[in-house]
Amino acid sequence: MDNITDLGGDVYEIDTRMAGYPGITAGYLILGDRPCLVETGTSTSAPVVRDALNTLGVGPRDLATVVVTHIHLDHAGGVGDIAEFFPEAEIVVHEKGARHLADPSRLMASARMVWGDKLDTLFGELSATEASRIRALGDTGSVDLGGGRTLRSHYSPGHAKHHVGLIDSHTGDLYVGDAAGVYLPQTGDLRPATPPPDFDLRTALDSIALFEALGPQRLLFSHYGPVTDVAGTLERSAEELRIWVDLTRQAHAEGMDLDHAVAMVRERTRERYAALEADDATAEQFELLSGAPSNVAGIMHWLDRVRP
Ligand SMILES: [Zn+2]
């Protein structure tokens, strides 16, 4: 299938075809004695992911683990469906996200408030997973990949309070989720992902520093794909965060409303991103990945919280 890319080390990138688009959200399969899926993609992507796993030789009884970096619907919306397709799989998630996978009603209600009617076309409905199949991770944890290989999790809040990064003992691949921002392989652009309600600058920067300290060989972005310039990319992640926060802080201090703040930040950051000058499809894809309105709203929300 043309949505599977062999990344070496028994790791396969799967384009989940989020909302029908290519190149928006990746899931990753680590093959071995105990096959493990990292990120399910959305609920509407679940059949695409199941078919990709089958193509790679992972049948209904073969998947040992599903792990998600965090429970936002583009990463974990398909957990309930994938759990049903693969009844032996254990579902692994940070402890702050676990209860939402068992009972998604609150998560779905707040997502519906944010996205409105777009929710159905972009994500679909996260369905519940039996609590007995969910294993909650603390500050660190580990997933047995078989043959002595493990995936070690590290709590990495900032983008979301239930976010973990995961490092593969065999390859040194670090699954960064959204904690280092979103990366567009066509242009090499990197933009922060700072949505409401959890964004917090200090913890976000701490998580990037933690990632650096883990000494990964390669970063695997959920949006989108592998990056081998680890140090340069993580440095850029931190720099991008600071720029967006500084500009939004300025807008906030001037008393701008959200629309004006978004327009200002968009204008002042525009030249940083080649994607926005590329063809319309690429620009649209980039905007869908880390929309300026969502980023600025998340930073504004944080500024309101931290203000004395
Ligand atoms: Zn995401």
From TrEMBL:
PANTHER family assigned: METALLO BETA-LACTAMASE SUPERFAMILY LIPOPROTEIN, METALLO-BETA-LACTAMASE DOMAIN-CONTAINING
Pfam families: Lactamase_B
Gene3D superfamilies, per database record: Ribonuclease Z/Hydroxyacylglutathione hydrolase-like
Signal peptide (from-to): none
Listed transmembrane segments: none
Entry-linked InterPro entries: Metallo-B-lactamas, NDM-1-like, RibonucZ/Hydroxyglut_hydro, ST1585_MBL-fold
Domain Metallo-beta-lactamase per the UniProt entry, residue ranges: 24-223
Protein name: MBL fold metallo-hydrolase
Organism annotation: Planomonospora alba
Lineage per the UniProt record: Bacteria, Bacillati, Actinomycetota, Actinomycetes, Streptosporangiales
SMART domains linked to this entry: Lactamase_B
